[in-house]
């Protein structure tokens, strides 16, 4: 098959720490790669900016094609709406011959879905949509602090999502929570929806069930090491995580134990929003008197990221809302249990008491309590939880399985492209 991905904001080959990079970019890159390995040809259409090349190979059979859109420089995904028609027109003008022979158009996130819808109508090809995150669910958990709604532009996003979902021939949901929202709150035809989770390259991560030696090699001397990672963004919940640190430190001190939290500070050259959030983190840590329990870090190398995942006793996901939770699966592949938000995809990934715990990060005492449950359990139970996490990653979330399931969805909508519209 010929498969076209539309993802204006989420360049699959974005550098870690780049604005608006993250788990969705990894998802698109790995799915494209695995589809190519299955013998399909994939072209990924994204925005050209930052001095990148117009064409860049992911692997043989999968290529990123970049096109200019809107103003020069970084453009927030929330601000792309006025330029999406321009983006689609540039892609169609340059790629018309290839798209005329494509088998499916696949839009990622609402900006990708909107541009993919334009392309689908122009060339008469089936449309598949993966939201990666839904505006209605995100708005439930994170309100827009600006009087005019310009921070997250929920009204535009939700309206666009509804139009895309109505037009799509099939929709991939990453979790049960997303499927329920699609049918119950967006009114999406349930027959269109397939649940296919995100995945992980299990061979790329360092599986460590015994953590202590690696911690010492990396220079950590505390009894426990806790890790979290992500863009420097309020939506990742790092400020909320800080509120849970004092009760954890206090309880461990009473047990004669010490702990180190690994928390990101974003790139060394932050954007204004990143700098404001960084300043808020540093100030709040000082106010809470927990700076001694924190090891801050800037952008990690690939090796550092793998080492921290593997060395951590726990991975923490304090996002108020997490659409899927790729970082959780990456932690699992490293033999690292998690404490994660119950809002969104983590409820499908985490089995409480088996491979981690779920707790609301907006309730710091509850989040701290689950951290302590995991850390202060008997060593045999902790080892069993690590093994269960690794097994879950291997059997459920290998990228090859994810891509095969998506290819089956592509096949299911060929030849009857408009039946469910």
From TrEMBL:
Pfam families: Glyco_transf_4 (PF13439), Glycos_transf_1 (PF00534). Residues 211-391 form the Glycosyl transferase family domain. GO terms for molecular function: D-inositol-3-phosphate glycosyltransferase activity. It is an enzyme of class 2 (transferase). Its EC number is 2.4.1.250. The keyword Transferase applies. InterPro entries: Glyco_trans_1, Glyco_trans_4-like_N. This is D-inositol-3-phosphate glycosyltransferase. Keywords: Glycosyltransferase, Transferase. SUPFAM superfamilies: UDP-Glycosyltransferase/glycogen phosphorylase. Residues 22-203 form the Glycosyltransferase subfamily 4-like N-terminal domain. It comes from Methylocaldum szegediense.
